[in-house]
Amino acid sequence: MSADTAQAETVASELDIFQCQVSIDLSVQLQNQIAGRNWKANNDLKVVWKDAGYWAARQHKIPSLRGVELIVSQRCGKQGRLPDIASCMPSVKAFIDGLQVAKVFPDDSRDYLSSLTFNKIERSVQPGLDFQLTGTRA
């Protein structure tokens, strides 16, 4: 462990900051892949992503937070055309709703979710979404 890392951890513990990395491999489609074609299928996927947010919060023991900064990174397959950067937004919104159901924050207003950042899409053997969550314990 470097001195910089040790210092960052000390500052984080003094400020009571919580950080978590959640990775979800895509065994299901992103919502945008069927949006507009079939409302029931789209709604079913919304439920899947909302449940993913809820269970990620439980599995990683994410406490109630405020000032949450969420960074989303999308991983796509090794072949084919890369989607646009906002293509995962409907699934991300459902994931955020799942965090809300898990009581990570009472609502997804700017009072609790201070920033949402989408990183550049990367190629990967396993497609999926990675969420990096940082916030102050409420």
Largest sheet: 5 strands, mixed
Number of strands: 5
Residue ranges: pLDDT <50 for 5 or more in a row?
1-11
Name the overall outline.
globular
Radius of gyration: 16 Å
Helix and strand sequence: HEHEHEEE
- The termini sit apart by 29 Å
Strand content: 25-35%
The whole-number mean of residue pLDDT values reads 81
Number of helices: 3
Going by helix content, strand content and strand pairing, the class is alpha/beta
Helix content: 25-40%
Polypeptide structure, described:
The chain has 138 residues and is of the alpha/beta class. It has helices spanning 3-15, 39-59, 89-101, and strands at 17-25, 65-76, 113-118, 122-123, 128-137. The protein contains three helices and five strands. Helix 2 packs across helix 3. Residues 1-11 have low confidence and may be disordered.
Describe what is shown at a glance:
By secondary structure, the protein is α/β, with parallel strands linked by helices. It has helices at residues 3-15, 39-59, 89-101; strands spanning 17-25, 65-76, 113-118, 122-123, 128-137.
Features:
138 residues, alpha/beta, five-stranded mixed beta sheet, 3 helices, 34% helix
Question: Secondary-structure blueprint of this entry?
Answer:
Elements: H1 3-15, E1 17-25, H2 39-59, E2 65-76, H3 89-101, E3 113-118, E4 122-123, E5 128-137
Parallel strand pairs: 2-3, 2-4
Antiparallel strand pairs: 1-5, 2-5
